[in-house]
Specification:
The protein has helices at about 5-20, 25-95, 100-165, 170-185. By secondary structure, it is mainly α. The longest helix has about 70 residues, at about 25-95.
Length: about 190
């Protein structure tokens, strides 16, 4: 359905107009009434897909932020271990009784730094993938927003065909419906 109580009320109002007009036994009114019913379903599906894409975009952005934080932590660990390694190397180069111990500690810290770097790079790749996914969901959301708007406009204009007893609003509504439905379909291609 819809996220807005006003949209729900609007759909209900259009349905009431269509129901009253159906009692007039006019073929145009029956055709337009059927069209409004179909458009209401298509608009509801488009609005639901729009909401889903928005939720997926937010989730993917959150995943990107988490991966960036993990990458930052891994890079900080890498830098810390590299600094410690260099300090121990300087101490070992100074010679003395503990030079061998400092050299071993420098090697240990170097191994830790070497292990942290690939983790940081892996998290950066995860961030990149999540960011790209979020952009894709945002693009689909934008297309579905426009599609949903076109479908809602089509419903309102189709109602004018009933009120005015003219075919041109119905044809206009059908054109908007085709455009809105096409855009919704294109969002997933």
């Amino acid at each position: 359905m819809s996220d807005s109580p006003l949209e729900e009320l609007e759909h209900h109002e259009h349905a009431e107009h269509a129901e009253h007009a159906a009692h007039a036994n006019d073929p145009l009114i029956s055709q337009v009434t059927f069209t409004i019913a179909v458009l209401a379903v298509v608009a509801a599906v488009a609005a639901s897909l729009e909401t889903t894409e928005s939720d997926k975009a937010i989730s993917a952005k959150n995943d990107a932020v988490l991966a960036q934080n993990q990458a930052t932590d891994a890079w900080s660990e890498y830098q810390s271990d590299s600094i410690k390694k260099n300090l121990y190397l300087v101490a070992a180069d100074g010679g003395g009784a503990k030079a061998a111990s400092y050299a071993r500690k420098a090697a240990d810290e170097g191994a830790k730094a070497d292990a942290a770097k690939p983790r940081a790079l892996k998290f950066e790749e995860q961030r990149k993938a999540a960011t790209e996914a979020a952009e894709g969901h945002e693009l689909r959301h934008g297309h579905l927003t426009i599609a949903s708007t076109l479908l809602h406009m089509a419903i309102a204009i189709a109602t004018l065909a009933i009120i005015l007893h003219r075919r041109w609003p119905w044809w206009t509504a059908l054109a908007l419906a085709v455009a809105g439905s096409g855009l919704a379909a294109w969002a997933f291609l």
